[in-house]
Amino acid sequence: MDVILEAFGQAAGLIGTFDARLIGIVALSLQVSLSAVAIATLVGLPIGAALAVRKFPGRQALVVLLNAMMGLPPVVVGLLVYLLLSRAGPLGPLGILFTPSAMVVAQTILILPIIAALTRQAVEDAWHEYREQLTSLGAHGWTAALTLVWDIRFSLITAVLAGLGRAAAEVGAVMIVGGNIDGVTRVMTTAIALETSKGDLPLALSLGVILVTLVLLLNAAAQSLKQLAVQRYG
Q1: Name one GO cellular component term (predicted).
Q2: If you compute the radius of gyration of the chain from its CA atoms, what whole number of angstroms results?
């Protein structure tokens, strides 16, 4: 018990003194995860909105596939991205394997289906509610989709946060394509796994505390924003 308390005390010290190594790992984690979320949002929102309002052959199959991809095994995604980016792979000439860019690619593939699927469900629910009104105003296709996305924009924050949560907690894929290289591709989750195995509990605990705190703050901010939207727009 004394060892655990001592580890927590040292972890608090690392956080309180803004340890350079700790800050570097956290900064890289945020850079990778936020970049992946931004890309996945830019691609996933239009895909989800289009699937919600447009009818075409094979749509249901795409919806099923998208929902299934929400549960993609991270290590499998990491392996596939590794094969694509390796020297023998089709994207090998890019030379981004074992770099933060490769980690962004892996995380984007993992979270894009989540954002797209949740967006589709939210927009589809809104489409069923406002379809007659939008149709009477002459809004069809992309016009209707964009209108609905804007109308429920605060609700879609949940979809984006779900993607961010998945990205921030990811270990397997980023470990494979990033290599967990100290000072280059070591993020919070991979550092926690490594430092725990090495017995460096203070650093692992400090990173764990920061990771949990960030998730709580993001969700609190999203909830506050949604409540503000309800008060303002009803």
Answers
A1: plasma membrane
A2: 21
